[in-house]
Amino acid sequence: MDVKSKMESLRELLNEWGHLYYVMDAPTAADYEYDQKLRELEQMEAEHPEWITPDSPTQRVGGKAVASFQPVQHPVPLQSLQDVFDPAELTAFDRRIRETVGAVEYVIEPKVDGLSVALEYLDGVFVRGATRGDGSVGEDVTENLRTVRSIPMKLHNAPHRLVVRGECYMSRNVFQQLNEERTLKDEPLLANPRNAAAGSLRQLDPKIAAQRRLDCIIFNIQLSDGDPFGTDAEQLDYLEQLCFRVIPHPVFGTLDQVQEEINRLGENRYQYPYEMDGAVAKVNRIALREQFGSTAKFPRWAVAWKYPPEQKLAKVLDIAVQVGRTGVLTPKVVTEPVRLAGTTVTNATLHNQDFISEKDVRIGDTVLIQKAGEIIPQVVSVDHAKRPDGTVPYRLPEHCPVCGAPVARDPDGVALRCTGAECPAQLMRNLVHFASRDCMDIEGLGPAVVRALVEKGLIQTPGDLYDLKVAEVAQLERMGEKSAQNLIAAIEKSKGSSLARLINAFGIRQVGTKAAQVLAKQFRTLDALIETKEETLTEVPDIGAITARCLTEWFQNPQAQHLIQKLREAGVNFESYQQEAGSKFAGMTFVLTGTLEQMTRNQAKTSIEENGGKVSGSVSKKTTYVVAGEAAGSKLAKAEELGIPVLSEDEFLTLLEF
User: Fold this and answer.
1) Residue range 328-339: mean pLDDT, rounded
2) 390-419 pLDDT tens trace
C-alpha cells in the first residue's frame, strides 16, 4: 500500500473509532491503540502536508454534541492536550519552554479518565453545566450534574461569574457495585468507568444519573471576573477554598523532578479511586501560559504523558470454569502470581470457547496478561516458544461444574450456559428475576433482601420463598417485624399471579414477557404446556424452533421439575386468567403516556394485553383510549387534537375492574 492510500485508510479507521468513542459511547479500540495510530497519521501528515484533508482526525479536537441535549457554546474552548509517550518527547517539550523563558515551574497532575465538563456559576450559584463536546460546543447536562454530590451548588465569596473545568468520573468501587447489581437484574454490564460516567451524564432522566453516584474533580479556571492569579497552583488552592474537589497539584522546578513525579504517579495510579490514563505537566505561571498561547487544538504550555497498559508474562497452572449469575460458563486461566496494575493477579479471563480455540490456550502455556480497561485481567497472547511438550487443546465441560446440569450454547451467541433451574451459582439472579415486576411482582424483594436471604441460608431455590416465616425474615439486617410481615404478605399474594407471569418468572431462555403471554393464552394451564411436544410448540404463533427447543429442554430438566413441584405444593397458580377472544378489551388499542403512580407502564401494558387489547406507541385515529399519567406530553396533545377519549389512571383501573 502506498503512503497516500495508507493515510486514507488510517483516517477512515480513526474517524470510525472516534465516532464510536465520542458520539456513541461504545469504543472498540483501547485508548493506547488509538493514540498510537493517531501519532502514526500525524507523522505521515507532517511528511506529506499536501495530502492532509479537512476530515482528518488531526484537524479536530473531539466529537459532536449529542442531539438530544441543548448545545452550549463554551466562552473559552475546552482544549485537549498534546500527548507524549517517552522521556525524549518530554525533554523536547521542556527544552522548547526553557529556550523561550528560561527557568520554569511545572504543575504535575493525575490525568483522570472520565468526561470533561465545564461548570458555570453566577454570584456563587451553579447555573449551568456542559460536556466538552467538540471543545467549542458541548451539551447542556445541568440537571444531571446537579446530582453529582461533589459539585457544590452554591459558593461563598465567589466572583460574579466563574466557569471552572473538571472531570466527571465513576469511582472503581461504584463501578464494581453497579455491575454487580446489573448482573442480578440481567442488565448489560457497564464497559468501563469512563464510559459509564459518560453514559450517566447523557441520561435524559436525572434520576438515573443520580443512581450512578458520579464524582467530579476540578483542574482549571476557564473564566473569572475576579482578581487574577499568578500561578495555576494558586488558583487551584482558591478553588479548594470554595469547596470544590480539586486535582492534586504539586509543583516542580526541574525536568528530573517532573519525570520522577510522572513515574511515581504511574506506579501508584491504581491506588487512586478514579481511573488514570496519564499525567499532565503544565506550566505553573499563568503569564507564561498567555505568552506561549495555543495551536488550533492544544495549549503550547502543557502536555499529557500517556501510560501504556501494563503487561506481564505468566505460566498457566490450570484452566478453571466459573458459572456466573446468569448461568454463563466463563473460563479463566489460573496462573503463577504476577504483580499487574497495582494488584497481585493469579487468574485472567478467557471469555469463551471460541476465544480459547482462536488463541490456542493450553494448561502449561506461558501467556501475556493485561487488564482490560485497567479492570479485568485478560489473556492477550500465548508465547508458543515457551510451550512445553505434551500439552493438549482445551474444551469447556458439557455439564455445569456447580450443579451438574447440561450446558447449552446460546442460539444467538458464543456463550455456554448452565440449564439448571436451581443451580446455586445462579440463585441470586434467578430470585431477583422471579420476584421482579414483570414476573411474580413480589414487592419488597429486591437485590439487597435477596442477598440477605441467600447469605443467611434461608432459601436455595425460588420455591423456598413460600416456606419463609415472619420470624426468620425479621432477623435480617434492616428488616424488623413490620417489614417482614409486609414481605411475607407480598410473597403470599404472588401465589395468585397469572400463568403468563409464572412462565416468565422461570427465566427460560428465549421466553420473555410476550412469549409467556402467548403460551399462557394458548395452553391455559402449566401442565398442558409441560406435556406439549416440541414440534407442536413450533405451530404456536410467535414461538419459533429455538424457543420450542428451549422450553422442552427446560421442562425436562430434573431441577426444573423439582422447582415446579415445590411451587405446586405451595399453592402457586398454574392456570391462565386470560379471557377468551372477545374479552373486554378485544379490538381496542390503547396508548400509554406519562408516569403512572399505582402501576408501571409495563404492568398496565400486560393488563391490557391479558384482556385482549393492544398497546401502541403512537396516537392515531385507530386509538381507542389514551391513558394519561403525570407529566403526559405530546401524545396527550395529539389525543385531544384527534378527539380520542383520555382516561386518568383511576379511570383506567375502574375500566379494568368492570
Assistant:
1) 91
2) 999 999 999 999 999 999 887 767 889 898
pLDDT digits 0-9 by tens, 206-226: 778 888 889 999 999 999 998
Q: 635 catalytic, yes or no?
A: no
Burial class, 420, CB count within 10 angstroms (exposed 0-12 / middle 13-18 / buried 19+): buried
* Non-local CB neighbours of 367 within 8 Å, separated by 6+ positions: 313, 314, 316, 333, 335, 348, 361, 379, 380, 381, 382, 383
Q: Hey, what domains does the chain have and what are their CATH numbers?
A: 3-59 (1.10.287.610), 71-306 (3.30.470.30), 311-418 (2.40.50.140), 424-570 (1.10.150.20), 589-657 (3.40.50.10190)
Identify the active-site residue in 4, 111, 332, 514: 111
Say if CB 274 and CB 217 are below 8 A apart. Answer: yes
Any bridge partners for residue 215, and if so which?
169
| Cα 354 to Cα 359, 361, 365, 369, 616, distances in angstroms | 9, 11, 18, 18, 41
Query: Bridge-partner residues for 408, per DSSP?
Result: 417
Cell numbers given for 584: 373486554
Say what the pTM is.
Answer: 0.60
Rounded Cα distance between 452 and 474, Å, is 11
Task: Report whether 2 contacts 14 (CB < 8 A).
Answer: no
